[in-house]
Amino acid sequence: MTSNYCCKVGRIIAKYELSTHVVSDDINTVLRDKWLGEGMQPNTALRPLTEWVNQKLLQSVYTEHNRKAIEPQLQAEYDAIVGDDADRRRLILEDLEQDGIDASTVEADLISTSSLYRHLTECLAVTKETKRGSSDTEWEKDKITYTKQRAKNRTEEVLKTWENKGELPNATEATVSVDIYIECPVCAKRTTVMQSHNRGYICEDHLPTETRTETETR
């Protein structure tokens, strides 16, 4: 079936009727103005703007299911859902289920900074001048961080299950550390993805000639 939505963000805006939770203007207009700092809106970077959209999503769900939707609670429960504390996250999701909310669907529908960036720049054709190194140019790093957090959360859930089954005693007492490694295709030298990005290369011994020359002259 062909989707009528421009992207995931467009689908979420329609699905949860997010424009009804904005005091004035269409939500896409508000998103544009917030990102650019135009009209009456303060200049807002992608990460807090993403959180704003996601909390509007939660507000919509909570209102539909007669769950308290005041701002402090929305902020606290959103932080728990996307945070590192697996036990706290599980408790919040279970609490949502008790209120008749499909917690797994809500969690899956939360948008990322990269999704919002694509919606702004491709679907809405918004252009924003940014300084190099600003948060708006580093959504890739946010995505890496999000991926690591999700992997950590899922691993902790598996450890808890194994502990409960008696397959791995005291598993939840372990400290879970997650990183992402990339490997040189020539010599198989491994390094973390962020270390490679910061250095500007994966393997110093197998760089393209022009890149090696530039590195050596620094």
Keywords:
10 helices, disordered C terminus, 218 residues, 2 domains, mainly alpha
Would you kindly provide a brief summary of this structure?
The chain is built from 10 helices and 2 strands; from the N terminus they run H-H-H-H-H-H-H-H-E-E-H-H. The chain has 218 residues and is mainly alpha-helical.
Can you describe what's shown?
- The chain has 218 residues and is mainly α.
- The chain folds into 2 domains: 8-129, no CATH class; 179-218.
- The protein is built from 10 helices and 2 strands.
- The chain has a two-stranded antiparallel sheet with strand order 1-2.
- Strand 1 and strand 2 form a beta hairpin.
Proportion of residues in β-strands: under 5%
Strand order of the biggest β-sheet:
1-2
Please, how many helices?
10
Q: Any idea what the radius of gyration is?
A: 21 Å
Termini separation: 53 Å
Tell me the number of structural domains.
2
Rounded mean pLDDT is: 82
Percent in helix: 55-70%
* Secondary structure category: mainly alpha
What topology emerges from the helices and strands here?
Blueprint: H1 8-15, H2 27-36, H3 46-64, H4 71-82, H5 86-98, H6 103-109, H7 113-123, H8 139-165, E1 181-183, E2 190-192, H9 193-199, H10 209-216
Antiparallel strand pairs: 1-2
Helix pairs in contact: 4-5
